[in-house]
Write a structure and sequence with these properties.
The chain has 5 helices and 2 strands. By secondary structure, it is mostly helical. It has one domain (2-142): dinb family like domain (Four Helix Bundle (Hemerythrin (Met), subunit A), Up-down Bundle). Strand 1 (90-94) and strand 2 form a beta hairpin. The termini are close together.
């Protein structure tokens, strides 16, 4: 299940990044949130693996780096999921304030997805404020099991 959800996460990020580029949306808050959601993905994966994060959570990146960062995050996540047999294991980590926490791996994996969904929604709001229509970002619209009887309603973007 997590592989499908992270494939959706990857594909939705890629589509959003392409949309922002195509529409030349260079907005400081979009740049901040998109960089943050990618950084947070890396940070949480690093915590799961017991490694230091390659990026501070609020480091901003040039938009030209986002596609590659997102692709690398997907590849590292896929490998982590392949290598981890028990997603209910407890991991101990320090947050960005240096405080110690413990969580189950699957709870952290859900958090990464939920956190990114929140920020994609914020970015979609800014897109609408620019009088543009954002691509649909809901899971169901990206699912290959979305049997929409109107093929013109949304372009189907199947993922595996």
């Amino acid at each position: 299940m997590f592989k499908r959800l992270y494939q959706y996460h990857h594909d939705t990020n890629q589509a959003l990044i392409h949309y922002l580029d195509k529409n030349s949306l260079d907005h400081s808050q979009i740049n901040s949130w998109m960089s943050h959601l990618l950084n947070a993905h890396y940070t949480w994966l690093a915590r799961l693996k017991g490694e230091p994060s390659p990026y501070p959570v609020w480091q901003e990146h040039d938009c030209s780096e986002w596609l590659n960062m997102n692709q690398q995050a997907w590849e590292v996540t896929k490998q982590f999921l392949d290598d981890t047999e028990d997603l209910t294991q407890i991991v101990t980590y320090k947050n960005s304030k240096g405080e110690w926490f413990q969580n189950q791996i699957d709870d952290v994996l859900w958090h990464i997805l939920n956190h990114a969904t929140h920020h994609r929604g914020q970015i979609s709001t800014i897109i609408r404020q620019q009088e543009l229509v954002p691509n649909p970002i809901d899971y169901i619209f990206m699912s290959e099991k979305n049997y929409n009887l109107n093929p013109l309603a949304y372009p189907k973007r199947p993922f595996r």
